[in-house]
Design brief:
The protein is of the alpha/beta class and 228 residues long. It contains 8 helices and 7 strands, in the order E-E-E-H-H-H-H-H-E-H-E-H-E-H-E. It folds into 2 domains: 120 residues, Rossmann fold (3-Layer(aba) Sandwich); 67 residues, DNA polymerase, domain 1, CATH 1.10.150. The strands form 2 sheets. Strands 5-4-3-6-7 form a 5-stranded parallel sheet, with helices on both faces. A two-stranded antiparallel ribbon has the order 1-2. The protein binds magnesium ion. Magnesium ion binds next to loops.
């Protein structure tokens, strides 16, 4: 991609509790950025396998008779949770109450949240840039869940600006979350750099006119399976 630096390998020393790959290739674009916006799930915290377990159990309760398709699940990364319920149900032809499924899924996830591990290479970048620039969270999760995750992970003091699905009408892949984060940081959108792991989030960054860095997922959907 024009204007991008050669891939930058961020290394992590393998130590007690380190479960993320020892190194991670991050393609950081060249530029003089004035603010940094981080997705949370799958970008700073390794919660996606936990979200998958919660979604699988919640959907089984309302009629899913097979394991939830992991590619489908990962293709919906960053999409607001209530919308995810609707999209999974539509994919399997299930009739559900998305609010009830949302509540059940989040209660299951709350019990799993304590098991989430930091994605250290990206957290190290966030800690470094936060010393000199404004930083923000933009997550498709509900506000309470996002705040709790930040507290549990010890990341809360880093981020004064936290945008959740409850703060905008249109979640990712719409640009609203990133634009609101930029506004609250007091930084022009084009001067922000976004860190994201999921396709809808990267589309949202592009729609906001912001360069982005793709954080590699443990598992990446081969292709978008549903319209978000
Ligand atoms: Mg994510």
């Amino acid at each position: 991609m024009p204007g991008r630096r050669p891939p930058h390998r961020v290394c992590q020393r393998r130590g007690a509790g380190a479960r993320w790959p020892v190194s991670m290739q991050l393609d950081i674009p060249a530029g003089d950025f004035a603010g940094y916006i981080f997705d949370l799930d799958g970008t700073l915290v390794d919660t996606m396998p936990l979200h998958y377990r919660a979604w699988d159990e919640a959907m089984r309760k309302v009629g899913l008779s097979c394991p939830l398709d992991e590619d489908l699940f990962y293709s919906l990364g960053g999409v607001p949770t209530r919308r995810v319920a609707e999209l999974i149900a539509a994919h399997y032809g299930l009739t559900i109450d998305p609010h009830a499924v949302f509540d059940h899924k989040e209660s299951l996830f709350l019990a799993l949240q304590k098991d989430a591990k930091l994605i250290e290479p990206v957290v190290a970048i966030a800690r470094r840039v936060a010393q000199t620039h404004p930083v923000a969270i933009a997550s498709g999760g509900p506000r309470d869940i996002v705040r709790r995750m930040l507290e549990i992970s010890g990341l809360a003091p880093l981020f004064k600006v936290v945008i959740s699905a409850d703060d905008v009408e249109h979640g990712k892949p719409a640009p609203d979350m990133f634009l609101l984060a930029a506004q609250q940081m007091g930084v022009p959108p084009a001067k922000c750099l976004v860190f994201e792991d999921a396709e809808p989030g990267m589309r949202a960054a592009a729609a906001a006119g912001m360069p982005w860095v793709q954080v590699p997922s443990r598992r990446r959907a081969s292709a978008a399976r549903v319209r978000t």
